[in-house]
Amino acid sequence: MSATAFELNGKRILVTGANTGIGQGIALAIGRAGGAVIGVGRSSMAETETAMAALGAGFQSYTCDLSDHRAAQAMLDRAWAASGPLDGLVNNAGIIRRRDAVDFSDQDWDEVMDINLKSLFFLSQAFARRLLAEEREGRIVNIASVLSFQGGIRVASYTASKHGVVGLTRLLACEWAAKNINVNAIAPGYIETNNTAALRADPERRSAILNRIPAGRWGDPADIGDAAVFLLAPASRYVHGATLPVDGGWLAR
Asked: What's the whole-model pTM score?
């Protein structure tokens, strides 16, 4: 297989939550592979934009409250109409709420599910409708979690949403694989991001987690970015409905 099978030259990829953490790592990896990124989220993406410019990679940003799936769909349509077709969608944006299950509120539940699962589905739907109408091929990469396969502790809605991400990834792959739309997921392990700040600030939890990771370190957003490039690139053209753990060996232990 040629090196070009792992390149994204000329490709335009929409990445949700590209302002920081895993989303930023994915955006920069796409830029290094030759692709351009449309970054979407509620917060400023100035830092990502500066880093992409240093790579000589194209970057556009759209502000959108992804908890509103209709607003998210409308944003994708605007981005498509404003600057041309998209080749890929990375559903990365996600939030987490930590609370004992007996104290979990419906707000804690709904806020997480709306962003982590509902918006993911309807953005994928909006993207696929565009691809099918224009008979284009495309790639969708969903960001799942090792908690797509485990229970976790004190993160009921997050665990439920990430189990759902894997299920939707498989369902959409079954429906769209024959239509040249690849749908796959990545299951990050414990990555140094804002979502894991509370765990890393707790000496006991940090030590317990680190001691279980065979690789002996927490992951870096770039580790997820490089995996995303593979799933967005021609090299993965026959990969459909897969969930790739990028976890330092966490699930193998």
From this structure: 0.96
